[in-house]
Every structure is written in C-alpha cells, then in structure tokens.
Amino acid sequence: MRSDAAASPGGPAAEGATSHLIHRPRSSEHYLLDAPCTGEEHFVLVSRTPLGHPLFNDGPGHFHDIQGTAEMARQVGEFIGHQFFGLPAEQHAAFARLHLRITHLAAWRARPEQADLTVRVRARPTEVVRGVPRGVELRSELSLDDVECATGTASLAFLPPDPPLQYAPPPRPAVPSPEEREDGDAYGAPQRPAAAAEVGRGSPANVVVSEPAEAAPYGRFVTQLLASTYHRVFAAESGDHLSGMLLLEAMRQTALLAAGRTYGLTPSRATMATSRVLFRARAEPGLPLTCTAVPGPLGRDAQQRPSVPVTVTLTQYGRRVAEATSTVLQDF
Description:
Blueprint: E1 6-7, E2 20-24, H1 29-33, E3 41-48, H2 67-84, E4 92-102, E5 116-126, E6 135-144, E7 147-159, H3 178-182, E8 221-224, H4 244-263, E9 270-279, E10 290-295, E11 299-300, E12 306-316, E13 319-330
Antiparallel strand pairs: 1-2, 2-3, 3-5, 4-7, 4-9, 5-6, 6-7, 8-10, 9-13, 10-12, 11-12, 12-13
C-alpha cells in the first residue's frame, strides 16, 4: 500500500459529499510486518460540507453545523480503530470525551455552495492491555476552504455488542430520586417540544428536547429528551443505548434555548464556539432523561460579539450521564 493510500469512511454525517481518509504513515513497519499500528498515526480527511442533509443542513443556514464534525470524528475514529489499530470489527465506537473549539468564526458562515473540508488527524490507540487497545484518541485541526477554523479532541471507547437480555430489567422507580426532583423532573407529564427556531433548527422533526420545566429553580433551564425522538443520524451508532450524537444534540439545543431566553441571544445567528463534554455513563432508551442548563454571565469575545458560558448536565434517575461546559456565541 502506498503512503498516500486513501479510504472512504461512510456514514450519515458525510451525506452529499465524498470523503477520503488519507493515511500518512510515519514508517513502513506496519506494511512490512502486516501488523496493527501501535503508536500515533497521521491522517488527512478530505471532504466537503454536507448538502441537503436532513439534520446538519436543517436550520437558519447562517453557519455550517459543527455538530456534523463531531459525528464525522466518531465515524473516522471507528474506521481507524478497525483498519489500523486492530480493534475487533464487531465493536463500535462511542464518545468518552469530546472537545471542540471554533478558532475562526467567519469561516463557519455558510454560503449556498458547499465548502471544502480538510481535517488533519493524529490518532493513537489508548488503554492498551497485552497489546490490544480498547479505545482511540483523535486530535484534529479543521479547515474550511483552506482557512484553519477549528480544533478538536475526541476520546472514543470501543464497546462490544450489547448482549441479549437474559433477565427482566429492573422495575421503574415509583418515586423520582431527590436529585431528579431538584432538576425539576416532571415524570408522567405531557412533553411539549421546544420551538424549532429557539433551538437552532428549522423542522420540528429535528427538535429533541421539550419546553423547559416551569417548576425549575430560577436561572436553570430543565428540559426532557423527547420520547418520540428518532433520526437515522442518531441511530448510526450501534448498540442498544442512546447514541452520543443524540445526547450532544440535546445539550446543544438546551444550551441555545437557555442563552436565548436569559440574555436574548438570537439562535439563528448563534453557535457553540466551544464545547467540552464528558460522557460518564450510557443512557438507557425508554427511560426519562433530563437536560439541565445553567447559563453564566453575559460576556464579549475579542470582536465584541455576545458570548455566554453554559454548563449542561444530563441525568437519568439521578445518575449523571454526561456533562458539558460550552460557550454560546452570537454573530453580528
């Protein structure tokens, strides 16, 4: 195989664009020995921004959707883990940590045509036990139309297929835990979806969170994951648990809603300028999931654009599933 050999990791994040992953090996040892790579490997992903995507092109169209790059990172990391680091093909990649940061906001402003997307990726196996890794870490620099505009780090855990249930699941608690009551959980109450425009989407079908609970303490916005939520993008990650992409979208939508209602930021011109997410546990389908956002003080970035830090926590029956610290930034 040549040093510039390319592969095309597919997936719903790349719809409307052809993607090529180019391996830039640091040595020829991998090919001479026909063995999995054991250290850091370098790649370049060449693609274009999505066109006509049912989720990532749904919205006001002011910015390219950075959520698409998160799902692309998971797909690329899964492909690299299987093809280059010897992880079993039946295992699927799930987010453990994710950090995204926009470094050049103007490059993310969308135009009618697709933008050229180039991502430089450094990948290494993690949690190696007896020569077998259990995960992959990616460090990336992203460019749109040759303008460097974002950086990212993703830690992926590779999980075996969920075994079939050999016993009945535990019964659902009759009374919510104290932690859930503090989060304003209203189990059994009808779920009213948030307005699509308030969460940065155009179609109500892409809204994944409810209107905030009225009983939530002042300064906290508590939404519920909609029980009817389904999207093939969210189903792309294998397994019987809720996908990391669905959890990321729920946190993004709740953060935008909180920043808009607290300080009047306009969701159609706002984006997540930074996002640092830690996934603590798998989320079970069919059980209520609460998303709590706490906006910080209103600030300004270097160009005097309105900026709001937001802390977001996902809980399920008192158990923390994921937590994020993000910055919502509004463009002029």
